[in-house]
Design brief:
21% of the residues lie in helices and 29% in strands. By secondary structure, it is an alpha+beta fold. Strands 1, 2, 3, 4, 5, 6, 7, 8 and 9 form a 9-stranded mixed β-sheet that branches. The termini are far apart.
């Protein structure tokens, strides 16, 4: 299944997508931990933001890629955490994940959000505009390699400085 990155359709999740999203997460990760985190985030009214749970779909409108932005804080200031991102194994390396991430960041920008943090592969996330969070004075709440904790601004407001505080669902 080859796709040009422009051919992936992306949209906010609907209630009908929840089982498919869970299936993507279970298939993409070694355990069901991430699927459980998403379920817990969906149930957390302080963390969940409608419209920031994004799927990329195949031509039959079946979700194959997923990206989630939820409310976190940098010290007391609101920010967004990008996690998890996943693609069903048969659609990996086709742009489905990138399409979902780009759509999530655009949706967040449209909600006038600014700060986004991600803990992830330093060779993957810079393509979206992420750079090491330490350059902004942002720290992870636990020990991580400097290059793995990244942040980006969605608009021209400066990013808050401080420590990232994740929603309880992340268990950190």
């Amino acid at each position: 299944m080859s796709h040009d990155r422009n051919t992936w359709h992306t949209r906010a999740e609907t209630p009908e997508d929840i089982a498919a999203i869970r299936a993507i997460l279970v298939a993409a990760f070694p355990t069901a931990l991430e699927a459980g985190i998403v379920d817990a985030l969906r149930a957390d009214a302080e963390a969940w933001i409608d419209g920031l749970s994004i799927v990329s779909t195949d031509p039959a409108d079946v979700p194959v890629g997923y990206a989630l932005l939820t409310r976190c804080h940098i010290d007391a200031e609101p920010a967004l955490a990008l996690a998890p991102c996943a693609v069903t194994p048969t659609a990996q390396r086709t742009g489905a994940g990138s399409a979902a991430i780009r759509a999530a960041l655009t949706a967040a920008r449209n909600l006038d959000e600014n700060a986004v943090v991600v803990l992830g592969h330093p060779e993957y996330y810079p393509r979206f505009g992420f750079t090491p969070a330490s350059g902004f004075g942002i720290k992870a709440p636990f020990e991580v390699p400097d290059e793995a904790m990244m942040a980006m601004a969605l608009c021209d407001r400066p990013l808050p400085k401080g420590t990232v505080h994740y929603p309880p669902a992340f268990g950190v």
